[in-house]
Amino acid sequence: MEAPKxxxxxxxxxxxxxxxxxxxxxxxxxGINPGDTLILLGDEASxxxxxxxxAFNEWYSRVFAEKRENEG
Length: 72
Hints:
two-stranded antiparallel ribbon, 2 helices
């Protein structure tokens, strides 16, 4: 079965310390480098999502821009 364009699926194994290794193809695709900090979003019904950095940066900017607008 072929994945739809732009859609991907990978597997990762959780080690004894709870660490996972992000597959190389995923790291390259999303520009994840050693030392980067990632945010994990969790939903008990849907699971865990790790959004790309660009999506997090956009969300972060919007949240704090709205806070500044409401304060000023």
